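Task 17 of the worksheet. Students: predict the tertiary structure of the chain below and write it out as structure tokens. Keep your answer in the requested format; marks are given for formatting as well as content.
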Amino acid sequence: MTREGALSRPVEGLPVVYAITGRQPGLLDVALDRGYAHNRTIYFCYVEPVDDGGRTAVARARLVDEEPPRLDQLRTIFRAHGPAGVEANFGCRILQAADGNLFVTVGDYFDHWHEAQNLGSHLGKIIRIDPDGLAPPDNPFRNRPDAQPEIWSYGHRNPQGLAIHPDTSKLWSHEHGPRGGDEINIIEPAKNYGWPVIGYGTGYGGAKLHDSTHREGMEQPIKYWEPSIAPSGMAFYEGELFPAWKGSLFLGALAGRMLVRLELHGERVVNEEHLLRDLNERIRDVRQGPDGALWLLTGNRAGRILRVSPASQFQARR
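Model answer:
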């Protein structure tokens, strides 16, 4: 997309995608390989049609930036094992770590929430694969015959945000609760994050879902929201354009229709600020650009890409 909003022609060579108008399946995330400048490799997460629904899948391809643009050497490197989903909670966030391995989120598909506690299924998990889609040898369940070898952590509902802390290199994630109970978690290998056994939300009709909020052997979030804000997208701010925000964690909010800034002290949230509420837009993703500006993707019917920079900089450019 240009500054004027002009779009390229659609990229050719995509796989068959399962999508329902007004629902969640479709093309859901894209990430550049760390060596993209010379290998033009991208990864993207999508919902692949299977049985009477779809499943979370990850593909790898080389982007050919010609006219029309196209995908070359396309290969699906991961397909979630478990019952098919129909409408919601496919997860589908991708993050490539410094070692080249990929973290991918898989939701519980809404109707299969108890699969989040089943290590024989990928549903309700954060998985870790190498660029070819194989489970790295140091994955925590790699040698367990009753578990999927790609699993990194489990007990998740629908994670739609992943980020690596710039100082500690720990993986952070957030996920949607049902009616309330959205969470931010620091993800450790083999840990169980509780869904649906423990949690802070209720069913959409107000019914009790969880046994309790705590249980031995299950992790507590570092923050949760009641009522729900529906978090989506996640980025630590490391730039110089907003010095007062350095070290903050940003996330978009769909139901909350805002950009959320969390001020951190170590691994504790000490302050929460709500930004851009006057836009009244569902913020689907947030990224930091090379110049320190924040880039947002909105999720309204007419989605937009927005650049957030200091007001003084905007005035100087007018």
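Marker's comment: Helices lie at 36-39, 311-317. The chain has a mean pLDDT of 93.
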